[in-house]
Amino acid sequence: GEVSYTGPMSDVMLTMDDEGIESSSAKRRKTGGDALCDHAREVDVGITEYVSNAVGFSGIIKQRYSDFVVNEINTDCVVIHLTDTNSADEDNKPAIQYDLLTAADRQKLEELAKDDSSSNSVEIKVSEDKAVRTRLHLLIRKDFPLLESSTAATDGDQKVILVQRRKSPQQRYGRGWWPSGRGDFTHFVLYKENKDTVDTVGLLAKLLNVKASSFTYAGNKDRRAVTVQRMSVYRVMADKLSQLNRSLMNMRVGNFSYQKEPLRLGQLWGNRFSIVLRNVVGDHECIDRSLQLVKDVGFINYFGMQRFGTHSVPTYEVGKALLHSNWVAAIDIILSPKANESADVGLARQLWAENKDAKKTLEKMPKRCTLERQLLKGLQKHGIRDACNALNFIPRNSRIMYVHSYQSLLWNMVVSRRIQTYGLNPVVGDLVIKTDSPTIDPVKKKVEKEAEVELLTEETVNSHTIHDIVMPLPGFDVKFPGYEAASWYKEILAADNLTLQMLNHRVKDYALSGTYRRMVMKPVEMTWNVLSYDDKTIPLVVTDLDRLEGKSHAVLVEGGKLTAVCVCFSLPSSSYATMALREVTKTDTSSAYQTKLNETE
After folding, report:
1. What is the rounded CA–CA span in Å between residue 272 and residue 260?
2. How far is CA 45 from its chain centroid?
3. What is the pairing mode between strands 68-73 and 226-234?
4. How many C-beta atoms surround the C-beta of residue 398 within 10 A?
5. What is the pLDDT of residue 98?
6. What average pLDDT score do residues 50-55 get?
7. What is the pLDDT of residues 230-268, one digit of tens each?
8. Measured distance CA(372)–CA(365) in Å, rounded
């Protein structure tokens, strides 16, 4: 169980200067930030306060992407693991003879699979033996998921297998190909390393020749990490998915099952984190004291840097443009040149900036840039004059993330002001979830969207702790605290030429009704251990793939010259592990700052 902190929160609060509240734009001007800069610091997104004034210990977060392992936790509070990559569909099928294809035929098929032209085909001469042809069809389907094969006859009645690219998943089977009585959705576990969730879905969709919208999942996972999550896809056979494992790089799929319903966004409790802090400086007593304080007292539940576009898109600026219905500005921000991107991506972005030619930009935009390419396809169809519908080519989950990002920025800034003004004890006028609200689970301790709140009064304020306090994510249908918090929100919005009423956007996808979020969060089932090592390249956390491949823990060196700390804990969805680590290390978690630590190590 968790240890409760019973002393006054003011004893562990770090006192900060009362700078007042500023708009997102003003804050960036003050710090010298650029709206399109990819190197935002924590202060730029309202992250300024700490729960504790205890001295932390220094360490590098994500020196290697394998130092950050995330396993999804489902709604039953079960941690998801990849444990099996085989498919039950493959049982009782004839054995595959890999020598049926000659080297020359295999090379032709490989070239065809890479060719986007669906008019090309390959003919393979075969015998009259139907069993041999069946095994060859099976081999082609297994090794080349993008191709389909059929038996045909030449003018001389010579049997051949005709192979061409598939145009759609239904083409092979017709409308009635899916087995009756089987659930329409294949659920599976996705393991990925150092990959974005949206880009990963785009790749799987391309390999299976289905639309990306056929896939659903509970939530996005970190890009620079090893992550494990559930996914579902509409009417794709498990063995077809399993076959992809032969060619996937730094990815695996497995644990297949057929279900009647798809996985839906938000259908999870949270995530289990296993994180390594490397190059740690601090004695064991200091390390234990800092971590124990976070375990007992918690951390400020800020939205972390990932929420605000640490990849390539400054999401809060796009969100602000969408709330203004300035569709063209939103498009330009998404497609504008970004710092530190590869040359081919930069060339495509520069082409858009100079010519606004969607067709030419799409030709230059690398296929790995899934979101940008979808937007450019929308612009090709609708043109810049119908920019709103062009934006709809971006998957809905990605589009609404932009406005949610701006909403999160407001929350961070107002929470910092609340702590600067009133400290870390409950005060009259704070909001708490009603004790009889059906939308909060006492075991899972998770606040749902429809939670009912009430104001603390003189009579009730002493019966609550800071862990009970929630702050509203602003919207047109939320209740605000009884003190001046509503005016703080309005102040920031006004500086960005927005109002609370404008959050009730006429485009439904961009309308923000609002919800509530705990101000201080305590990690669940938190443990840690201190490690010594010499080789920076050796992974210090065993992943699900390591276990599948029979790999054991790294060999640690007793008395090694380098020190690391491995921390494990669980958090509800939308709480950020980096914010818990920030409380421990008292350092900026932005990629720019962490990169500097790497460089000076």
Report:
1. 27
2. 19
3. parallel
4. 18
5. 60
6. 86
7. 999 999 999 999 999 999 999 999 999 999 999 998 899
8. 8
**What's the whole-model pTM score?**
0.76
Token output for 188: 């599976």
- What is the spatial distance between Cα 503 and Cα 489, in angstroms, rounded to a whole number? 12
CA dist., res. 137 & res. 148, Å (int): 8
Let me know: does 519 contact 300? Beta carbons within 8 Å: yes
Q: Report which DSSP code applies to 95.
A: P
Does the structure show a pLDDT above 90 at 441? no
Alpha helix positions (H), 144-250? 169-173, 197-208, 238-243
Question: What would the two tokens of residue 68 be?
Answer: 């950050």
DSSP-based three-state secondary structure for 371 = helix
Highest-confidence segment of 26-30, 364-368, 407-411: 407-411
- What does the alpha-carbon distance between residue 284 and residue 264 come to, in Å, rounded to a whole number? 43
Select which of 222, 496, 544, 588 is catalytic.
222
User: Is the separation of the CB atoms in 600 and 587 below 8 Å?
Assistant: no
The two structure tokens encoding residue 273: 């984190």
Rg of the chain over CA atoms, in angstroms?
A: 27
Q: What 3-state DSSP class applies to 341?
A: coil
445-469 mean pLDDT: 84
Mention every residue, 6+ apart, whose C-beta is less than 8 A from residue 343.
none
User: E strands within 406-523?
Assistant: 431-433, 453-455, 469-473, 515-518, 520-521
Which residue pairs, CB below 8 angstroms and at least 24 apart, start in 141-149? 141/243, 142/96, 142/243, 143/109, 143/243, 143/246, 144/109, 144/110, 144/112, 144/113, 145/207, 145/208, 145/209, 145/240, 145/243, 145/244, 146/113, 146/207, 146/209, 147/109, 147/112, 147/113, 148/172
Determine contact, residues 345/362, Cβ cutoff 8 Å.
no
DSSP secondary structure of 239-256: HHHHHGGGT-SSEEEEEE
Residue among 404, 397, 405, 400 at smallest CA distance from 196: 397
Contacts of 180 (CB under 8 A, 6+ apart): none
77: left (phi over 0), alpha (psi -120 to 50) or beta: left
Asked if 588 is an active-site residue, the reply is no
User: How many residues does this entry show for the chain?
Assistant: 601
Q: Give me the amino acid identity at 445.
A: K
Return all residues near 372 (Cβ < 8 A) that are at least 6 apart: 334, 335, 348, 365
The CB density around residue 4, as the number of other CB atoms within 10 Å, is 10
- Exposed/middle/buried for 558, CB within 10 Å: 0-12, 13-18, 19+? exposed
Closest-CA residue to 493 (of 506, 507, 476, 517): 476
Tell me which residue of 38, 35, 9, 24 sits closest to 345, measured CA to CA.
38
Kindly state the helix (H) or strand (E) to which residue 545 belongs, with its residue range.
helix 544-548
Alpha carbon distances (Å) from 230 to 78, 88, 510, 548: 12, 18, 27, 17
